[in-house]
Design a protein that fits this description.
The protein is an alpha+beta fold. About 15% of the residues lie in helices and about 30% in strands. The two termini are about 35 Å apart.
Length: about 475
């Protein structure tokens, strides 16, 4: 699945635990209708809406939740309503709205999803957002609703109206917690009435927008006082084959990051400010490292062979490069196609062909070059100069830059049908680029809007690491 740039149409057309040494608390991570809605909106006092939220969370506790693997995506359990109903949602740092299919959604892919549609009529705390309260959608006066229509670059779209209900993230995958957790809050989200494309056939029920916009899930959590800072972290792993019952595949932490996940010291790169709302990052250089491995650290008796791809820094970043968890693969400028293929041929003797699938043994796969991506270091802070994720050994002129390793186990996609592997780093973009989920995998990545930085630490991203140590 490819979920990339979010476009929220500006005009309405046809749709008028326990504490640990770090102070963290970890939880597991997956006609009459119109009359009823009008009654809910008019009869529920405003005070009742806020009182339903439950106790406020300790602002100094971070929250970790188990992530699960979809078809090229990672998702988390979102529990909504009273009583709580589970909805699985894609974690998408490339968009800013959370939405799930509601009871009256027509032909919205129930047969493919993990859960039934959200039944708003069964929730005592659900309410329609009036035109005076619109924050996610746009007011449609003759319907007295906040409507929105969202489309994605790969062609999928959905239509919804804005609603609100209490929610919490994670917890038990099989059933809701008996008592609402301390980080329950009132979320404004889209109640979908129509979906197209991959939103029908994906494993997940809906999507959770996690970009920089004020409507994103983490921003609403911060505004409601349930996380301590404007930050969160994502740690993605990947199962070779997806289990539709849900394969554990990482950890999401709201309010910071959990150092128990770290295999290497966390190093920091600049979060580039802009008006787009995306998490933009600056790419300096690209290298190929021979000798295999799956880490930025090269453990061998001899120095590795490293080949730099001959491309200008400006070309890599024209139009902006974003870090997007909702995009499965990595897409960079088309200007890089020729120089990358030249470097690849030099170190491997073969071409880089994203349309050619090949049989590889485990040893052959692990012996392939590691792609190294050099990112602009955090200019407002100080790095740990002996951390293995810094650029000093490959670029002594920029020792505080960050090096992220993409091993072949991440950039080569395996097909359980053909039992072949295909390269999945594309050089197709006329402008800009996307570092997708296969770039992010194997790292605990901090998205720190408060300090304008990204943090990178290598990790196995196993939820058991934080769950078992509680």
């Amino acid at each position: 699945i490819l979920i990339s740039y979010l476009t929220l149409l500006s005009t309405v057309t046809a749709y008028e635990g326990k504490e640990d040494p770090w102070g963290l608390v970890t939880i597991p991570l997956i006609p009459q209708r119109v009359h009823a809605r009008r009654r809910r909106r008019l009869d529920r006092p405003a005070q009742e809406k806020s009182d339903a939220l439950g106790p406020k969370v300790d602002p100094f506790e971070d929250r970790s939740s188990s992530l699960y693997q979809g078809y090229g995506t990672h998702f988390v359990d979102l529990w909504i309503g009273t009583p709580f109903q589970r909805q699985s949602v894609i974690v998408d740092t490339g968009s800013g709205v959370t939405a799930v299919p509601c009871k009256d959604c027509v032909n919205c892919g129930a047969e493919f999803h993990t859960d039934p549609y959200f039944d708003e009529d069964s929730s005592a705390t659900f309410y329609e957002v009036s035109c005076e309260e619109c924050s996610v959608g746009h007011c449609v006066p003759n319907r007295h609703q906040c409507s929105l229509e969202v489309s994605y670059q790969e062609g999928s779209s959905w239509v919804a109206h804005e609603v609100a209900d209490i929610t919490y993230l994670g917890g038990s995958h099989e059933s809701p917690l008996e008592n609402p957790p301390k980080d329950t809050f009132h979320l404004h989200f889209g109640c979908q009435s129509r979906v197209t494309g991959l939103f029908k056939t994906q494993l997940e029920d809906g999507i959770m927008g996690m970009d920089l916009s004020e409507t994103s899930f983490w921003q609403q959590a911060y505004a409601n006082g349930v996380i301590r800072s404007k930050s969160f972290s994502l740690c993605f792993s990947r199962q070779k084959v997806v289990d539709v019952i849900s394969s554990e595949a990482g950890v999401l932490t709201l309010g910071g990051n959990d150092p128990r996940l770290h295999s290497t010291t966390m190093v920091y790169a600049d979060l580039i400010e802009g008006s787009s709302g995306y998490f933009q990052i600056h790419v300096k250089k690209i290298y190929l490292r021979l000798g295999g491995g799956d880490s930025v650290e090269f453990i061998t008796s001899s120095s590795p062979t490293i080949e730099q791809v001959d491309i200008k820094e400006k070309s890599l970043n024209d139009g902006g490069v974003i870090l997007d968890s909702g995009t499965t693969f990595t897409y960079l400028t088309e200007d890089m196609a020729e120089p990358f293929d030249k470097a690849w041929r030099k170190v491997t003797g073969s071409e880089w062909n994203t349309e050619k699938a090949v049989h590889l043994s485990d040893s052959e796969l692990l012996a392939m070059p590691v792609i190294l991506v050099q990112l602009q270091g955090w200019t407002a802070g100080i790095q740990d100069e002996i951390a293995p994720g810094l650029a000093a050994t490959v670029d002594p002129q920029n020792p505080d830059d960050v090096i992220v390793a993409i091993p072949p186990t991440h950039y080569m996609e395996y097909s359980d049908k053909t039992h072949k592997y295909t390269p999945r780093v594309f050089f197709t973009e006329e402008e800009g680029g996307v570092l997708g989920a296969n770039f992010m995998m194997g790292h605990n990545i901090l998205f720190d809007a408060e300090n304008k930085r990204f943090g990178f630490s290598e990790s196995t991203c196993e939820y058991a690491v934080v769950a078992d140590s509680e």
